[in-house]
Each structure stands twice: as structure tokens, then as C-alpha cells.
Amino acid sequence: MAGVLGVAVIGTGRMGADHVRRLHEVTSGARVAAVADVDAERVKRIADGIEGCSAHTDPAAAMAADGVDAVLIASPGPAHEAALLAAFEHDLPVLCEKPLTPGSASALRVLEAEQRLGHRRVQVGFMRRYDAEYVKLKSLLETGQLGRPLMLHNRHRNVATPPGFTSEMLINDSVVHEMDITRWLLGQEITAVTVLKPTPSGNAPEGLQDPQLVLFETAGGAVVDVEINVNCGFGYQVQAEVVCERGTARIGDGHSLVTNMAGRWGGTIAQDFTERFEDAYDRQMQAWVDATRRGEITGPSAWDGYATAAVCEAGVRAQQEGGRVEVELAKRPPFYA
Amino acid sequence: MAGVLGVAVIGTGRMGADHVRRLHEVTSGARVAAVADVDAERVKRIADGIEGCSAHTDPAAAMAADGVDAVLIASPGPAHEAALLAAFEHDLPVLCEKPLTPGSASALRVLEAEQRLGHRRVQVGFMRRYDAEYVKLKSLLETGQLGRPLMLHNRHRNVATPPGFTSEMLINDSVVHEMDITRWLLGQEITAVTVLKPTPSGNAPEGLQDPQLVLFETAGGAVVDVEINVNCGFGYQVQAEVVCERGTARIGDGHSLVTNMAGRWGGTIAQDFTERFEDAYDRQMQAWVDATRRGEITGPSAWDGYATAAVCEAGVRAQQEGGRVEVELAKRPPFYA
Amino acid sequence: MAGVLGVAVIGTGRMGADHVRRLHEVTSGARVAAVADVDAERVKRIADGIEGCSAHTDPAAAMAADGVDAVLIASPGPAHEAALLAAFEHDLPVLCEKPLTPGSASALRVLEAEQRLGHRRVQVGFMRRYDAEYVKLKSLLETGQLGRPLMLHNRHRNVATPPGFTSEMLINDSVVHEMDITRWLLGQEITAVTVLKPTPSGNAPEGLQDPQLVLFETAGGAVVDVEINVNCGFGYQVQAEVVCERGTARIGDGHSLVTNMAGRWGGTIAQDFTERFEDAYDRQMQAWVDATRRGEITGPSAWDGYATAAVCEAGVRAQQEGGRVEVELAKRPPFYA
Amino acid sequence: MAGVLGVAVIGTGRMGADHVRRLHEVTSGARVAAVADVDAERVKRIADGIEGCSAHTDPAAAMAADGVDAVLIASPGPAHEAALLAAFEHDLPVLCEKPLTPGSASALRVLEAEQRLGHRRVQVGFMRRYDAEYVKLKSLLETGQLGRPLMLHNRHRNVATPPGFTSEMLINDSVVHEMDITRWLLGQEITAVTVLKPTPSGNAPEGLQDPQLVLFETAGGAVVDVEINVNCGFGYQVQAEVVCERGTARIGDGHSLVTNMAGRWGGTIAQDFTERFEDAYDRQMQAWVDATRRGEITGPSAWDGYATAAVCEAGVRAQQEGGRVEVELAKRPPFYA
């Protein structure tokens, strides 16, 4: 594997700033090498907090900065086409927040430019494909044990919409996720769309037709429905149920993956502690590294190690001799308070 | 925050090798600076795969190596005391795999040495405290809305034991986790232990008394039961249910946290997409960085960006004009096959 | 309340015979007074098994028989209109299996005849309205706490269709239940229907378009979808989820009623043993009465009463004195083997 | 089957009055022939409401009354022994509310009297054996697919105790159910009892040690724990989980029966509409009979039959012709308002 990847982040609004934080504090093997934003003050403030990171107001300048190996585009959609073309000029790999561009005509131009480059450089930020539940669902479909997918039911619910949210955004910003997920899960293009509109909820802002039922037909003859419901009031919920020839599988209702198959509903049980506690091991390590870099100690102490050792000794005696065994514990030093 | 943390990993068996991988590929802000193992060949092979990592057969030499800021002890339990004392000599922060030491007498000696050092240096690897479900359970208890904990029911099930597993290990290696979790969740020391032993399962190896029901009493008057069942055959399960004065809360049965309170059972719903998809964003970034460092493109392509844009256009028309709208899609270039 | 209700059962095929059994063995306060069927032998065999029940091949004759107070129509659909008109002539209350009649024109004639009678006499056998889960769902909607219903999602799955099942029967025999449930739950008429047909499942018999997605619009502006999937292979499932302005409520997935409301998912907990065990009390009584009438004893014996009394005595001592108390039990007499 | 069973009900307090109602309104094939209670006024009022039912203050007189074929004892526990012996004198079958008698010495005397009678006459009212979930759990255990039971975990929770509830009653009135269920599910006698008592809940009345953890050992070497928690505040819950050699099975947490087996958790799906809707059919019939006897019509009307027929016609057209089909519905007559 090559050295640490230097990333230029284009756009430092809500999503961009969050990606900067992620690259800096969460991701292994990457660093933020440059940031660009039209807001010169904001971008400088961000760059100042990161060692070896330069600030720019011009995206192309950020891409040309020292140590930049790759580009992350998180600017507003209308700025994507220009940023993508600039990245192509520097022949840099790109992670581009969705949408690729707003509209299929501009997207086609990007496709053509990338093809002229002669090799693929773009990944689009459809992050649901990295969600553990969707990944499990796709893996199960790929085993073929459920047979061919016939239908896909989706629920997409938000607590409430921000000011200015329109019915078009309901499709372009929200249902777009189910479009990508449908294409990815089923491996088929979408061929037709129908929209049914109930009387709007009393919670929907004036003029917003919410909720809606959006229907897709796919090239392989599957039928897909999406409840898009962005002022549901009670929470954020994303659910999907694939109906196949020999069973169904659903995600998103609290359990990780629930199937109906051969007379039984339910899910799988982990077979190993690494499966169950892998995340806990990762989090423990990150927490220890973070605290240590800050010069702190935050986790279970040597006292905790001692106290469990004393309880183990009582436990083994209780196991071997029967009856109730009292635990003998030294007095806890204030040092470990 | 200081620079990247250089870690010396002591012991490169199963757990140690996994921690090396974790520090190298998953954790942000850390690197493996040195490794030590009695197996000189193994430790050299591991060090060779990591830039700037030195190999040692003596733990103390690893701790003294260039660039070492902290120590991770993953050697067998009987070697922990010496490794901890060596780390104290170098005044290095330590993450020590459980057990701190095998036995309370040696653990007490470590406590005393750390106190002589004058500041805390040791974190013990009770990683369940970093599990998202246990963390939620503890957070809920700390709000006080359930009242004081009265009982704690635990299930700890393994598919099968490895050869050589003894009844003592059932306490020292398995139930030790519930001992730590009990102390941490309730914030109370354990004062007495009782063990009940049903007729062993036919799946238990000859001589192993499995399963057992282990009971703790705590300093605050709570009663805790642990089903330890390490040849259950069907999977790995860790469940906990706290019974409090005004309700109960349980984790580990597939749902993340389920409560009984005020006439209702159930759980909370995420309020925001960041809560629901935070991990997906993190995994997307790590996958993109990893693939890019390997010179590959693995995620959703520009074609996916284009195709969803075309479906969005059909969707908005269907929404505005009613009826069924066909999607117009360019022919897919082999470049994106 | 009046005396025992004498019922004439018209039609003794699968449904009719089951209703005869139900009236005879399950229902309190009713008896089968007459049965009618075109199959003279079958109807005689059924009548012979029931004290005071006469056999007929003419429905009208059965309705005129001694002791008949009411009529249950379970003959094939095309025979319903004549049987209903005959019941009107005798001015008898009728429970008529669905469909009322096959087709809206004949149904309109029945409506007119009932109105000429001057009072209502007909109940149609839409039995889902008596399902405990649907009843709970409707009760919840009627409280108004979820707000106005916006959408209703339905799943209707059968393992496999019998020979001769057609696409029309999919609507007339299967989806008809969701039509009634939609009208009943929402209290609104259905105003339009759309049907989407995926490529049929490989499990569907040649010529049967299965599954389908059926969409209703209602007079109050709600949108309803029904997955009708009658060769799903894995089981019989009927699920419904109502999406309202302030939350959702669903039934049919194992739990009795699960809601999403105000940041929480889940259900209610019984508040009283009568709620939890009402059915057990009813079944205990029926089992005791049935066994006693057969001259048998089948339930928990006096020995069971004695043995629990002895365990209670040990339990109270253990509670009062602490420690482990052995149960003292007399030798079990062979009489109670 | 013999004629309708005439039952003498001894004791018409809360439980007795409820049994009278059940025999009168719910149970098929039985009638209340006599009632006895020390409260002459109450017993007369009850008898007056039931045709052919005589009122008594002496239990033996009720048993000797005309038309009595069997006895139901629902008087206070201390009166059970005398009532049972009186029933034996009349050689009548008895359903006796739990406890058989209060105490094992008196229970032994009843056993001896029944043995002298030469045939069994007594069924004890341990009604949990008739609960659908416990029945499924026992059926599953009897298939042997889970292997031998090793442990049984129970939760028994009440909202709050009535005034005067004592720690002894916790065992004798509450845990007695788990004693019976343990003996019945496992088919083994209980051999020893241990009780652990946490610091009482703040919700427990002064002097009541609540909750408690009660442990049973059985003749076959199983270990059983019972959380008895009768002031839990949030609801009435009865849960049981059997831990066997090859899997576990639990009831009482909302789903009907959930197992862990061979890498999967979950439950079974009904295979047939009769399994799913059997209760709905029974309730529909009882509701129709009850309403008809009152001279009322309460269920779906002929209008409902007509309206669904019209929707079916639109549905079949939509299915055959494609697109959206409007439903043509006659104007609803006020007669069906």
C-alpha cells in the first residue's frame, strides 16, 4: 500500500466540513492536504487547524497544491461539473458528493470527459451502499437462495423538512437514494416512474405535496414502491423489503436483517465474538489512541483489572466448593477514585 | 492534538496480530512503531510489512525503540506483570489486554507500582465498555429515568469451546466480562458469588461443567445472574437486561436497546440521517481511501450518477404531470460495464 | 338475552362444515337447527351428528324448519342471491359468507330487497374485522392520537394457489379482503384502482400473473398499496401498516401492534393478568367442560396441586431463613402416574 | 358427546363471578346450574340472571341441586378442602381454583380421599397450561429438536400489589405459577429452592421484600430462575425462556415463540389462513350470535358487500386493461348510514 493519501476537499459547508473532520480524525491512511471554499475566512480557519493543510478559494488551485493525491467534492451541486473537469485535468481520483451533477445533460458531459481521460476516476457519494444493513441485504440477494427479486418496498421518512424544501427536492434529494439503491440491489436500470399523491399531511409546509408514493418499474420486470414522507414527525427511518420468488428480506426496522423463508421469520446469530464485538475493539483502540494523544487516561483502570481478578477467585471457589463465597477486596486507593 | 502515536505491540499471537492490523489499517492517528514476540521469525515478518516498524524479542527493547510513545500488551496473561512494570519504567501509557494479571495478588503489585509512578498509565482491555449497545444501556441508566437498578440478567453463549477449556476458564475467561460489565453498569463492587450447576449439556466436552448459572451480589444490594453456556451450539450471544425500579432495559437480542417503561415496550427511532448513516459515511470514506491508495475505483461510478439523474427527471415529470413516465437513458458505454 | 339461537346453515362444503362445527362446539348460546346442501347424503350425515338438527336439500325448506331463528349462508357465491331473498321472505337475520353476491349488479338487487324489508337483516362475513390485531389497529386510529391516515401498506401472501386459480380470483377472492379492510379502517370508499404487474414469479402456475401490486385511492385522499403474492412459498402472511400524520401503526409481523410515534417504536404491555391470560381461562374452561362431557380428566391433577404446595413451603422457608432448602415430597402414588 | 353440562359454582367472589360469566356467555356445551356463596344476597342476584340456576349458601346443597353434573370451586383457599370432600361424596368432577388447598398436609388428605374414591375427579386451575404460548413452548420441547432442557429463565412482573400483600404471598400466590409451569414444561419435580433478595424497590410497600430472585433445582438436574417483581410499575409480564442442549425457546415478549437454533433466531410463519384467522372466525360467529339474540345487527352490512363488489370490478378491469380505473358506486342509501 502506498503512503498516506493527501486529499483536497472542495467545499467546506456542512457536508464538506464533516468530511474534513472524518478524514482528519476517523479515516486511517488519509490526511487533508488542501481545502477550497468561496468563503476565504472559513477555509483558512479550517486549514489552520490541520497540520500541512493549505487553504484556497479556487478549487483548481487546491487540486494543484503540494501533497494532493485525490479530490473530495462537497461543493453545491451546480459547481460539481467544473470541479470534476478540473480534477480530470489533474488526473486525480475523485469522491464526488451526490448528485454527480444536477441534471442528466451535464452528467452525460462528465461521462464523456471521463471516457476521454481513458480510465475511471469518479466515485459518486451514494453512501447507502456502505451501510452495514444494505450490504447484508445485497449479499443475501447475491447468494440466490431467495430466488429472483419481484418487488422492493421502501420507506423513507424524515422528521421535518428544512425551510424552502420543494416537491422537486423530494425526488431529487430524497428519492434519489432509493433510485440508486434499487439499481444497485437489483442490478437493473429503472425504466418508468409513476407518482401517487395522497392529500398532504397537516404537518407538511404550505405548498409541499408530502407524503407521496413513488413507483418504479425496472428493466428486469420488478416493481418498486417508495413511501417518501419527509414531515412524518416521529423520526428518521429508512426501510427496505425485497420480495423474491422464495422469500423476503427486510432491513431498517431495528433488527439488522429479517427474512421470511420456508415457514420461518427471523435473522442470523453471530457465530463468533469478533463478529459481535468487532466494532467495540475498533472503538476501544481509537478511544485509547485519542485519549493518549491528549495525555489522558479514560478507560477501565488497573483497579478494574484487580477487582475482577478478586471476583474471579471468589467465583472459582464458589464453583468448586458450592454455596455462597464472599469477595475479598482491598480498600480502593483514592488514586483510583 | 499531538502527532501520530507510535505504539509498541507486545505479543503478536491471535489477539496481538489483530491489534497490529487494527492500528495499521483502521485506527486514525496511530502507527505501529515496534513489535515484540518470543517468536523472532513471526515478529520480523510482521514488522517487515509496516513502514518504520522495528522487530524485537524483548518487550523492554521494543518499548525503548525509536518513535515509541505508548505500549499495547497482548502477550499471554502470565507475562503481563513484567511487561507492565517495564512500561512503568519507561513511563509509557499502556493498553493491556485482559486480564491485567492472572490473580489478585499480582494485580495488587501492579496497582502499587502504578501508584508509585504517581500518575495513571494503564487501561485494561475490557472492550465491552466500547460496544455501542452497552454504551446506550449505561447512558440510559445514567439518565435516572428507570430508577435504581435492582437486578441484572445476563446471557453469555458460545458455539463451542476450544480443546483444553476448563471449568475455571469459564469463570476467568468468560464470566470475567460480566464481572466487569456489572461493576461498570451498576457502578458497584461485587461482594459475593454463588454458582449453580445443572447436569452438563451433552455437547460439553467430558469434564467440563457447562452451562452454569453464576450469581453476584453487589455492594448496593443488586442481584445479578449470568447464564454462562459455552457449548450452546447455535451461535455467539451476549445479552443483558437491567431491571430497575421503574422499568427494564435490555440489549443483545438483535434490536439495539429495548425498554419496558410506563406500559410500553420498544426502542428509540433515530432523529437524523447522521445518526442512522454515520457508520456508512465512515465506511464509504475508508473504502474510497483504501481503494485509491491501491490505485483502484470500487464504488458507484459516474454512470450511476448519470442514471439516477435521468430517473430523477422522469420522477419530477411524473410528479408534476401525473401518470406513468418512461425513463430516457443513453446507451451504457462499455467503459462503465 | 333470549334463548339459544337456532341457526340454519346453507351449504356444507369446506366453509359451511367448519361453521357447523364452530356453532356446535365453540359458540356459546347457539345451536345448529337445520342444514341444507345439494348433496343429500353429506347433509344427512352432518345433521345426524347433531341433536335436534334437520337435513334439507332446499335452502328455503331449511329456513322454514322448526327452531330456526337465523340463517348462515355458506353456499357457493352464485347461490347467495337466491338464498338471501329466501331469508328475507322469512324475515330471518343472515350471516352471509363473502362475497355478498358475485358482481355489483346482483349485490344492488340484494340492497334493494333488504331496504323493501324495512330493516337490516344481513351481515357479510368479512371476518378480518374480528381479528384481534385489526381491531386494535382500528381502535388506535379512532383515538386520533396518530392523526389522519395518509397511506395504508398491505401485504397478503399465500404459500401457493389451488389448481384453477386465476388472475381475476386474485382480485375477487384475495384482494377483496384488503378492499373491505381499507374501507373499514379508513371509513372511506375506494374511488380508483391501479394494478402493477411485475414479471411473474417462477412459482406461479403458467398463466397466473402473480404477484401484483394493487393501488387504491380513497374518497378522503388516502393512497393504499397491496402486495398480493399468492405463491410466495414460505407461509401465509397478512400485514397492514397505516401511515398517519403523526405516526404509523402496523400489525401482522408477529407482534400484535407496533407503532412509530414521537421518537419511539414499540407496543403496549398488558396491565393486568386478565388481559394477558383471558384466552387461557376461556380455553381451560372449554377443555374441562369438553373432557368432563366425555367422562375424562385431562388437566393438572390433585398431585400437581399437592406438589406445588410442598414447593411453596420450601420456598417460603428459603425466603425467610436464607440458603438452599430441599423440597420434601411424598412418594407419588401410581394412581397419579 | 353428552348433553349440556350443568355446573355448580362454589364461591362467587371476583374469580367465581368471572367463571359464572364465562360458563354462561363464552363456553360451549355448559350451563351454570347452581351457585353457592356465604353472601346470600349476592348469590341470589347472580342466580336470578341465569335461567335454570339455583342459589345456595351451602356448597353441599348446591352440589346436590337439580341438574348439577360437575363442580367449580372458586371459594377462598381455606374452604377448598371441605368443598372437595363434599364433591367426592357426590362423586362429581371438579375444577378447583388454585391452590388445591393452602398447605401440603391438607393437600395430602385430598389426595388420599380421591384415591379412596377409586377414580380421579379433580382438575386444579393452573390455567397457564392452557395459554397458547406455553402450549407452543411445551409442544416444541416435546419434539426433542432442541435436546434436553438445562435451564429455565422466568420473569413474572405485576404493576403493583394490592394492600396487604406479603412476602409469603409472593411465593404462594405468584411464584406458585412458575412452580407448576416448571414441573409441567420439564416433566420433573422440583427438589430444592433458594431465594436471593436485592435491596427492595422504592415502589414496594413498606415491609414487602420485592423483587426477589427465586431459584429451583429439579430432579433431572435443571436449574430454574424466577424474577418475581410485583411492583414493577410498567405492566404485567410473564416470560419464559428454556435453554436446551441445542437451542433456546422463549415466550412472552410480544412475539408468540422465538427460538435460537442452528445459527438463526426467529419464529414460525402460519401456513394457512385458518391458523392465522381461526380466532377471528370464532369471534365473528360469537358476535353475530350475541347481536342476533339481542335483536341487533352490528357487523359488515350488505352495503359493504356491494361496495367491495364494485371495487373488485374496477380492480379486474385495471388488471386487464392497465392504467387507473375509477370505481363506479351507487349513492349510499340513508338506510345503510
UniProtKB/TrEMBL annotation, chains A, B, C, D:
Gfo/Idh/MocA-like oxidoreductase C-terminal domain segment(s): 138-327
GO MF term list: inositol 2-dehydrogenase (NAD+) activity; nucleotide binding
Residues of the Gfo/Idh/MocA-like oxidoreductase N-terminal domain: 6-126
GO biological process terms held by the UniProt record: inositol catabolic process
Keyword set includes Oxidoreductase: yes
Domain of life where this protein originates: Bacteria
Enzyme Commission (EC) number: 1.1.1.18
UniProt xrefs under InterPro entries: Gfo-Idh-MocA_inositol_DH (IPR050424), Gfo/Idh/MocA-like_OxRdtase_C (IPR004104), Gfo/Idh/MocA-like_OxRdtase_N (IPR000683), MI/DCI_dehydrogenase (IPR023794), NAD(P)-bd_dom_sf (IPR036291)
Assembly information from the UniProt record: Homotetramer.
Xref: PANTHER family: INOSITOL 2-DEHYDROGENASE (PTHR43593:SF1), PTHR43593
Role, per record: Involved in the oxidation of myo-inositol (MI) to 2-keto-myo-inositol (2KMI or 2-inosose).
Family: Belongs to the Gfo/Idh/MocA family.
Protein name: Inositol 2-dehydrogenase
Provenance organism: Streptomyces dioscori
